[in-house]
């Protein structure tokens, strides 16, 4: 059975790293195990019911005459089914005993029955709308749906060897190859996604025509033939050469999916123009357009990136899909380069924005993930959305996680993320290695790796030292090694059965501040512990509004947090508290504007600032919440 | 000629104050004279051209067959013409030598020719849409247009004795009186406005049926017959009894126009339930929902009020019309009560938000008036809007200003606002009084009033001492009197020709802070001088981004501003500067998130914080701007 992990760079000429098969990794216990379990036991099955209830699968049945109903849902609703199939197929490999093969086969049967002889397959551009096929590609999502269909087909093929959906996708892709191109009809991904699917299809089939089609889409040469406007090109993040881009703009998910496809293309071609553009875009993103949660997309309008440093908290859009796309893109960049900075971004986005996207019980989803709630907004967590792209995207991400922990390259094993797990893999030397990882990271900072090669084996083990860590300690069989945060520590030696590595990371809470260019965070700090971003919720603060509360630090005393294990309703995660001050006076009677100094004289009283993991916010009802907290130094506001 | 000023409470039983005729006041020179002159010479004539260019008047001509064109513009575009007529009619009284009578007569001719025999008059609900008349009153603006038609008709009648438009309005109003009511067809002001127009129509005609119709509209009894939703009632601020309202919510202009109508109704009926509701709403507005500029409406979505203390700066909506409505409502509350707090709000809104709404040269208008610009937004100042309600509303407000300066009541003369002017009026005793006001307020703080009664005359003069003033001094013929800010100083005596009053107000810059509940303004101050709110614009700050700049105060030294006269491009107003600090280091290379303390170590350098009047912002191009400025105390951020 083919098992390419999340992106199969096994044969990619420009890949520094190669994934291990998803089935080579078994999560034992720890942080993500609960999230994976709830995804498999509850989220994935329920979402299939939701697709039925909202007519998404009936949209296929009506075309085969099995149901006589009107089409329902958005024009891209087919993609929701494909993403569910992909999630369910991956879960069948990574999710323990659960096997969704039967359910998937039934759904795939409904889908492939609709395919036209040409290969075209889409439930929206039928009947009266048939004449609009490929005529409104800036909005049509036809190619976006095909991209997800291909990814779902590849996942089914890798999980079960089931080829029906993949073959249907290939027929559609071959239709595009035949009829579209610079000298044929123009093609455009109005919502980029197909690019990365085509590269993966090339990896599965070895057929160069698919990567050539991806290259054509990324080349952005059809601007004139399609009469695209500047605004469309900006919004779609397609329509001009990808390599002409200098910054992220427009629709955040589209832009990051385009970057994923471009990185896949770079991995296969080594085209340095792509590498240079991707590096520039990465700097732009991480130095001026990314939230501390790993979320991206500052504006609800157009679900778009903002300007540099435009990172408002309450109105942050931070679509779950955008954070997932951020993980997907950084994974590809990591595979290309082996540089720890990409894994750092993945970890930030996964533990915080992505993880926040699904409620702890696996029944509610966030489309947006703001960094502050006033409390009076419509609830952020909902069981369903009319545009329901995020829930299946979250599901497929959670069940894919084992595939992100480890990579290989020639004579090398890479450990990217820390989680209780067993790896049973053949290194690229074809030697077999078992590795056991014991940790309750990120609740605790100790990670133990026990290596069990079949026989003494010389290779280098690369251990990621997170950029956020202070005083990290590594020892190999009790011999200490120096470790530099933000890098992979290379440990090259002959490894013998029973050799062990211990990594000690400091996961005590720490204070973080934002670049002063981020105007909203002036005078504020965020609390982080390990990879987890914390927040204040109103429910924990009976003394007064959280926005009237400051974290109080008496310099030069060190910041001093109390630690406790939070309630079950917060997943039993560590929670922290710190001395704070809260305005003692009811402010409502004080007027709106007063001479400077008047309000400062209003008395403060001691309180405790209580911090819970951001990803767990709004699991106890929708209420005021903030990540960035005002700070008081030496009791002066 | 009838001259009722802005709201004719001459015979209103519940009015503490009565307006003086507009023609009794002549502005000599000063702050508003330039704004009035540019309104008359440029804004009003140009706006008529705009109405022609955008087809608003052709919408009438097409119905009489004079033009064969499609209807253009929004469904409420008729109201833009009416507001222009009202502005032009008032300007013909207050604007010096200019007389728009001829132009108005021509436009009125086009309008009245369209009236149907029933009295109905509207250019949108015709032809195919005729069957929708009064069927979609939550959105139709039919009654809103009638309200503005009546106000325009009354203004023409008062200015020229020209009755054609007023009579047309009366015919439409009589149609409503005849066919609508609790026992007839249901009526609703989906956009309240007609209420105040009907009360004014009652004042002009003495016909009680109009005030009864206003009372019926305010009674909000048609919720069930019209099947109104909770959301509609919230948004429209109508549909339930006005007296059941406890806070401002929904569309800001609608809510404040409803409050205007309710106050007019209270003025005529003395119904205490209205008085209590209005007082409660006023407290709600001024203690938690009003910007320092007098602007209201925090949200672009629904052009709506936000929650209490939801007063974001950059995304503030602050529609020009809403600030005007705030002035209109507080004027009515002032006439009802004679309490200075209402005049304080009027002054704040007029000098700042309203004044900002039109460019200094009278050619560009703001629809929104945010308190901060990042610099990259689409320009706020534009010559025309598809929904172009604000420009003629601004015009009619500017040319009405003389009518707001003074009021009378039995044996009393009230001076509300300070501006170079001559008043020539008969007091309610029928004795004639000339009063000369000499001042360059608010550039200077000295106001001289010279009274010239025909003969010695006993009456009380009420002099407004603005709430913002510190150490105000009043002297009458050189005898000092104590003055309390935020009140009217009553000076009762026998006034002889040549008696004079001198008022000295401190218009030096002062720092203001916001209630800490306004989260956006934490750690920030605003600079005000007299009634003027100041702001920083990027164009004046070459040392670095204004958002990287702080106003630096070394306690306990007093705040120390330099004063200068600004450039002509700012209308020659006083401008101020103060010591500040700006980040000396290029922040772009510093990353987004760092351990607490890292960014604080970035060096600061001295700079000057330069302040210009907020109303003059974006007159030198669209760029970053802020009213609320971060403060540094003793050089520590």
Please give a structural write-up.
Two copies of one chain form a homodimer. Chain A is built from 15 helices and 25 strands. By secondary structure, chain A is of the alpha+beta class. The first copy, chain A, has three domains: 387 residues, Glycosyltransferase (Alpha/alpha barrel), CATH 1.50.10; 98 residues, Immunoglobulin-like (Sandwich); 125 residues, no CATH class. In chain A, helix 11 runs antiparallel to helix 12. At the A-B interface, helix 12, strand 16 and strand 22 of A face helix 12, strand 16 and strand 22 of B. Strand 22 of chain A pairs antiparallel with strand 16 of chain B, so a sheet runs across the interface.
Q: Greatest interface and its residue counts?
A: A-B, 46 and 46 residues
CATH fold annotation of the largest domain in chain A = Glycosyltransferase
Instruction: Provide the helix percentage of chain A.
Output: 25-40%
Which residues of chain A form runs of ≥5 with pLDDT under 50? none
